[in-house]
Write a structure and sequence with these properties.
about 45% helix, alpha+beta, about 190 residues, about 15% strand, two-stranded parallel ribbon, five-stranded antiparallel beta sheet, 7 strands, 8 helices, single chain
Length: about 190
Amino acid sequence: TLMHTLFPYTTLFRSWSDADEVMRQNLVAENYINSFYEAHEETISSFKTDKEKADYISELVTTEIVKHYDDDYQVRTIYQLSQRDEDLKVGVCTVYTTVMDRLCELAGIQSYMEIGVLERDDSGTHCWNKLVFSDETIHYYDLTSYASVGNKNFLDMTMDYYDNCFQYRLLDKTEFGYKAGVNVVEDDDWF
């Protein structure tokens, strides 16, 4: 939809008076992601499967784009990330998830951002990626947890691992109103 196209990279605005600044930030962030994708497009395109592409993109995100988790919780958007010095590339789960989402979409992989909690450690609100490969299989990638602990099991989680081992649970609209009151951010739900 129009709103997803216009504002996937920035904090959503509170009033129309903020619209010009949000549009400017979104353009900066979109150019940041596009330039990164273009620099790696040949390699990404050389992979035969969506899994190979997603695994490569997840490594790029966690080693070259978002290098560390932001314990101060200051970098929450791609725009904010794009304004950081190279050695200060940090972000929270929304940054890891949005960067992965945008790069996967550019690579032709259907991607959704899910919002919920990790029940195993009651860590509070969290988000991760749900990818649908061309063979219509579903794959879960939690780059924030992977980057934090280095456990590759957070990449391409099976449904069993997702449900039982790490106990991910989507929030319903009564628990958390993430901007538009959704727990899976799809094109039609963005705003």
